[in-house]
């Protein structure tokens, strides 16, 4: 018994029942009131918030990548533009069966086995919503075939859009850089959703990277109504993209391409500068990479080929290649001598070298008595040894710097290595040693501690030729360069010496094949092996120990319009390797047709133009990588 | 009633019929929209089922109280055995099994158990001598009557139905006068039991649902998705709704189960707070009618059964609405007359039919102790 003593009757049970029923009824009413209140709260107080959530469910905003601004040359000709493109990307987070999707894509798009391998590797590292490019430049048929099968291939995002195109390919690789898909770190920086929009690319190197803000443009957007499963119900509206602004360069597109092609199979660099403004007309480092391949996401195999090449196609030699300038500095040294009172008519006897203490410094020939102009023309070391010994190199170094050597120029996005113009203070600081006369002798003929990049050589020549302190630039400006602090008659001596180099001196074989237009220049041969080691880097040694060939020049002699520098790595000598290249591109500036005709003849002998040769090299590399062709005997062994 | 209406028609419980027709009719309208503006697959069948089950309820109404009393225990026994069979079939096949395939119909014994437990316990207390109403012998047999089906349903596992079975039975015990402190004690014991039940009786998906309910943000794409999408649908409807056939949450498939468990959210998106209050008020009227029926019943069986059946109906409504508004975990209990689905409508209609029978019995007996409706 639970509670004995209390009388239980039918009536008392009924009263209990009624009471408890009322209690339950009241509780139920309370629940009803809570429900009504809760609903009112959700639908009135929180209405705005849930309306927004409902809209963001329903409406899917797809960004349309903006068309990138064109990069154009001084005449408005495109160096980089955009082509309409069908492309496919994979969104890693949405892919369910990676292996299956990749193999299906391979079938539908007829991808090559190494492209499939690349895709597989890329997917392995991919995370989240970062798109992984599968293929671009699809035909409409492939695009359509893929679009039909989309429901079975979650995560595959085909797209019609625009992609970056560099019409002259490798010729502008080092100049413009390339574009590519933003990487995870770049996305983490500001979480801009545009960065993970399939098909969107940002500048990754060179001018493309430096001028990214200007070139990027503003994305458009497509508003669509979608179901929970991502099926598009209807389009709600489209806002067009705003293309990026075009970027105009001082480059002459035709010359840029010509120079790159004329470099042929050599490894080297060239820069051409407008002698009136300092604007860079051409800027080339070869061999190069094709920025079109980089922008599509370069294949591993192609990248391996580029990075294993001993000619270092991935290095921009025009600004990052440092070379002993050799005799190309002699005209500049002549100006320094004049500056310090040397009479240009004074002669120095060249018995084939110069004795300093118990060492004999070689000249390239026995020139007999030479004055300053003739010393330049014949590239007589003895004359300059004597002058450097007399003046000391510090005085020459000051002029060298005034001419732009050793200078880090303010050039948009171009990473430079600016080398060394040594002097006594520099040597003391760096080596804790006093400057010696021997150092002066080495430095004056552009050896020893002297090391510069090809762009600096072109600037030096442009300044010598114009008499003005021109600054190299890629973006046109109206700034008028100040004149150099040297009397014009001093510069005229150096200019005359350079004119005679081409007319009758060391580069006599490289006269311009034009009536009434002559070129002035100076050859240079820089030793790769230590100077004075006794072994010259002639034709009999392996490629990588051969001497570099250099040439600086300007034209026309009387009224200089263009100045240039050419470096051909391991080209054996300036007159042999570099001057002919300069001759041809200078010819192009005055008679493009004539220059092009001779180039086409040369290319036929080289095995096609740049693109054809690169394709052939790649095919060979691929065959070797797959073990179909045995490794060719190395050039060293063949020599 | 008008004089020319024949007596059997005039005597029909029009009040409750109109309430159910109003709710179920609204359900048809909502399901038409849920199907994207189409009678098939849901709205048409829903209307047809309602007519069939309403007819069934009116037939049940005609059962005499004595017949119901007589049939209670045998029916309880039959369905307890069927529940066991379902359980065994599930054990053989693996996984959870809730119905018996009879060929023409899928029989879900647990549905019948909800009213049957109520009837059985009401019958037990009616048979119990009045003097023992507060003794131990008034407590343990009902606990067995509840416990057996509760255990079988729980292990199916069907959390919602097992709680419904228990709630109906316990309500009858409460109404029968079992001392209050026992309920308080049981409540405390139950609270202590919850951790055990959570870790040992619930399957993983059920545990997740409870966890998600406690912290919906923890899993916005998994189990929490149901609740957040339901709240978005209700909240975005505002006061007047987005307009009929204009609900984006339901039509674009963001709202899961928009025609069954979450039909209220489908409705609220298009009809807003006004539609929601209409539904709540209609259910309120239905429960008020059911409560009056039990209060007015002359017999102890009628009173207790009526109270228990009212609670079964209330349980469906309350749990479903609490769930869609994010106040209860997702337990898979449909909303009477609005959710598409035969079993639940049948259960509710059996309850309403029985309540109608009790009311008819009251009228025939002159309404002893009748309170104003």
What does this protein structure show overall?
The complex is a heterodimer of chains A (639) and B (373). With 639 residues, chain A is an alpha+beta fold. Chain A has two domains: 61-248, Alpha-Beta Complex (Penicillin-binding protein 2a (Domain 2)), CATH 3.90.1310; 253-590, DD-peptidase/beta-lactamase superfamily (Beta-lactamase, 3-Layer(aba) Sandwich), CATH 3.40.710. Chain A has 25 helices and 19 strands. In chain A, the strands form six sheets. In chain A, strands 2, 3, 4, 5 and 10 form a five-stranded mixed β-sheet that branches. In chain A, helix 14 runs antiparallel to helix 21 and helix 16 packs across helix 19. In chain A, 45% of the residues are buried. Chain B has a two-stranded antiparallel sheet with strand order 1-2. Chain B has 373 residues and is mainly alpha-helical. Chain B contains 14 helices and two strands; from the N terminus they run ααααββαααααααααα. Helix content of chain B is 70%, strand content 1%. At the A-B interface, helix 1 and helix 2 of A face helix 7, helix 10, helix 12 and helix 13 of B. Chain A: The chain crosses the membrane at residues 21-41. Chain A: This is Peptidoglycan glycosyltransferase.
Terminal-residue CA separation of chain B: 17 Å
Mean pLDDT of chain A: 88
Described by strand count, sense and barrel closure, the largest sheet of chain A is: 5 strands, mixed
Shape field of chain A: elongated
CATH topology of the largest domain in chain A: Beta-lactamase
As residue ranges, the low-confidence spans of chain B are: 368-373
Radius of gyration of chain A: 36 Å
Could you say which overall geometry of chain B the principal axes of the C-alpha atoms support? globular
How many helical stretches of chain B?
14
CATH class of the largest domain in chain A: Alpha Beta
What is the CA-based Rg of chain B, rounded? 21 Å
Largest interface: A-B, 45 and 55 residues
